[in-house]
Known about the structure:
This protein is of the alpha/beta class. The chain has a single domain (12-268), classed as Rossmann fold, CATH 3.40.50. It contains seven helices and seven strands.
Amino acid sequence: MTDTEQPxxxxxxxxxxxxxxxxxxxxxxxxRAGADIVTIDACGPVAAHNxxxxxxxxxxxxxxxxxxxxxxxxxxxxxxVRDLDGQQRVVADAVEQFGRLDIVVANAGVMNWxxxxxxxxxxxxxxxDTNLTGVWNTIKAVVPPMIDAGNGxxxxxxxxxxGIKAVPGCxxxxxxxxxxxxxxxxxxxxxxxxxxxxxSVHPYGTDTEMGxxxxxxxxFADHQNYIHSFSPGALPxxxxxxxxxxxxxxxxxxxxxxxxxxxxxxxxxxxxxxV
Length: 275
């Protein structure tokens, strides 16, 4: 392949939540672009109120197989993003093995449904701990070795359209995804002097286990006016978007083609946020 076909050749990417869905897609697409991969996933229950099954060890093993099928190396560990020590160990081992860390995709997250005053403290805390503190843990683990390496790099946080336009029925989720934007923007300014760029991606309606959670329909059935907050996009929205389409944006942000972008919020929403 040419350099154009493999713009990330020689680089190493760390992806959280890599067992399936967007995380797996990001791993495979980054590998296809030439990067070696380090990924983690909890591979087990992380939030009791989720309306979809948790990722499994078998799914993480399938991600490994797919990345290896692209001809790239991969290290995959069963670590929850809420485990700061675990993330730091994985990153340290990866830097020792590969000699560098260039790309980070803070992808892992959970989503469930409930009105803000009706959810339990547990439901609130599990979402905040995974989606917001989990991203901070990732930042804490990856930034020091990236600075020490002196190679610059790209950190990509996966927020949500709900991190720009809050919606009813999942305010706790929205709060975390808005928080990811604040972390992204602050970190971009703090890391600019080191040549490390930080941007967030904002998907809407993605074809993953989370995106297909049927428990959302009960929320809409109980509170029918909520549906008006989930408007169609400017482009046809009759189907959920394939994770690969989000990964196209991730690969772009990871590559030198996006060298002028930092502290940016990139919508992957078919125009939903503007309609």
